[in-house]
Amino acid sequence: MSDRYADEAVIRRILTDSKTWAFVGLRDNRERTAYDMAELLRSRGKTIVPVHPAAETVLGEPGFASVAEVPPVVDVVGVYRRAAHAGGAVDEAIELFGTYGPRGPGDVRAVWLPLEVVDEDAAKRAADAGLDVVMNRCPAIEWARLRLPR
């Protein structure tokens, strides 16, 4: 696998300029990576939107059953599902961002696939739709590596 979807400038911009992250696969389960990453990004000032068929409230934020139900305020869709299921969530993210209209200055519209969630076809579809894509990277590791402020 290449590092095509690991551009440092894109990662830095997503982590610093984004305000709201939808976490696909996020449940109220502290044992899961999605919960850890949502909690970390929330501690860094991000708003978290849980997305899971159970539509649970997580970290005090109301959940949604699918990306298609998420209000159009999201900057990043993080896909914390197995790679075999990532494509559908990415396609929903493409649809969601397609409803936003033209990009304005400073708009972040991105899909983030974490470590071991690799779907080259889905990543290409998102990039072809004009979204920024990060794949096979961990927000916590990248935050530390880039020495971003806490």
TrEMBL record:
Family annotation (InterPro entries): CoA-bd, NAD(P)-bd_dom_sf
Annotated ranges, domain CoA-binding: 15-99
Transmembrane regions: none
Domain of life: Bacteria
Record's protein name: CoA-binding domain-containing protein
Organism, scientific name: Actinoallomurus bryophytorum
